[in-house]
Amino acid sequence: MKLRLFILFFTFSMIKILATGQEPxxxxxxxxxxxxxxxxxxxxxxxxPDYHPIYGSHNVTKKRGKETVTFxxxxxxxxxYIATFKIENNILSVEDIKIKNVNSEEHEYISVxxxxxxxxxxxxxxxxxxxxxxxxxxxxxxxxxxxxxxxYHLITIQQDNVMKExxxxxxxxxxxxxxxxxxxxxxxxxxxxxxxxxxxxxxxxEWDLSRKNTRGMSKKEIDQLKKQYECPPDENYIDNYLFVxxxxxxxxxxx
Length: 255
What we know:
By secondary structure, the chain is of the alpha+beta class. The chain has helices spanning 2-14, 41-47, 113-117, 170-184, 188-208, 211-214, 219-228, 235-245, and strands at residues 25-29, 32-36, 60-63, 66-69, 82-88, 91-100, 109-111, 128-139, 148-158, 161-169.
């Protein structure tokens, strides 16, 4: 299992996948800004949806009695925003949140932090492992944050407090990601996602092979379609998929 996942991680880091790389959030450490391969505000906005800079009530305008969202995410930034964080005195905090200015031709990013939060202090209550790419990029991959770098800086956060941090190379990073996924497999979240994947596959099979969908297809085309669904996805196949696409920030694993 570990070897297979290790190979898979390496493979997905090397190839170009038909998806779009994401614009990263930022983090400031010792007055220097870095890219951050995590999105610590994801859970915060799940718990406080009204404060989301795109979909929350603070960024909704009234027009002729109807509510319209002024901006939505793009393929290169599904979040719709870029957040900047800061670690100071071993505490993680939010410094700024920016969205694209739809009123300008350049659509540059502008700060909306004050508009949303005013002067109130945000308590993230974030727990997870922050990943900061260091050094040079070895291979670019157009899938989320899957590009491979020669060095990384990992920071374990518990309730916004820095608990541990370490510089590691690319090989240690791959081993860390495998261990993190193996720990993820022990969680209820993994069981739910695995069931959902199989459920979605079953729904797709039912539709794709339905008379309505295959009407007008040749026998050869239908046979090819049936062949695609001959074998349902097993645990290994589902694990490979979840290994690549899952956000495992919340899995605290040793490194």
